[in-house]
Amino acid sequence: MKTETYDKLKKLHLQYKPQEFGKICQKLLAISFQKAGYSHIIERSIQGVDIDVANEKGEKYAIEVKTSVNNSVIFETKDAYGLQQRKKDGYQPVLAALELKMFSSWAFIKANDLKPGKHHINLLVPRIYELEDIINPLFDQAVKEHFKDTLDKGQKYLNEILIKGGAEVRE
């Protein structure tokens, strides 16, 4: 991520509790998928997989989103179960992990066989690099574009942006 993106995320992290910050990142990630042309997006702030996305090319991802201030994330049994359930509908199970540090970016990991537990983000494999190449620059754009209003209004503002873009938001 760009230094500017890191600085803005740091301010959001200071403004909001860790769980709310994670949800803000999740919504910004969903907006990034909108920018990438994914026309079917379901973003969930409730139980279940965090984001479902699909595009016209037939790419379908069920995404569990994790953010961290250190180098690891905890992938829970419920996360693995939820992703496997979405697989039945043709979605590729994915863990999206972001460490809040300078020069980090979203890592997208195929989660078909990922075991629950604590995982070092940089050691997670197999990665989906082509998705990272598309989404990470768009995440920088989404943060830049929506930072001020997100800082002032939080998740409510991002929900409005997602809905305007055609996403379904489940709270």
Would you kindly provide a written description of the structure presented here, covering whatever features stand out?
The chain is α/β, with parallel strands linked by helices. It has a single domain (3-170), classed as 3-Layer(aba) Sandwich (Trna Endonuclease, Chain: A, domain 1), CATH 3.40.1350.10. The chain has helices spanning 3-15, 18-35, 77-87, 129-153, 155-164; strands spanning 40-44, 51-54, 60-68, 72-75, 92-99, 107-110, 117-120, 168-170. The protein has a 6-stranded mixed beta sheet with strand order 6-5-3-2-1-8. Helix 4 packs across helix 5 (155-164). The radius of gyration is 15 Å and the shape is globular. The mean pLDDT is 96.
CATH topology description = Trna Endonuclease, Chain: A, domain 1
Uncertain parts: none
Count of alpha and pi helical runs: 5
Please give the alpha-carbon distance between the first and last residues.
28 Å
Physical arrangement of strands within the biggest beta sheet? 6-5-3-2-1-8
Tally the beta strands.
Answer: 8
Highest CATH level, the class:
Alpha Beta
How does the helix and strand content classify structurally? alpha/beta
Percentage of β-strand residues: 15-25%
What is the level-2 CATH architecture name?
3-Layer(aba) Sandwich
Using the alpha-carbon principal axes, give the shape: globular
Residues in helix, %: 40-55%
Mean pLDDT equals: 96
Task: Spell the H/E element sequence.
Answer: HHEEEEHEEEHHE
The major beta sheet can be summarized as: 6 strands, mixed
CA gyration radius, whole angstroms = 15 Å
- The domain count comes to 1
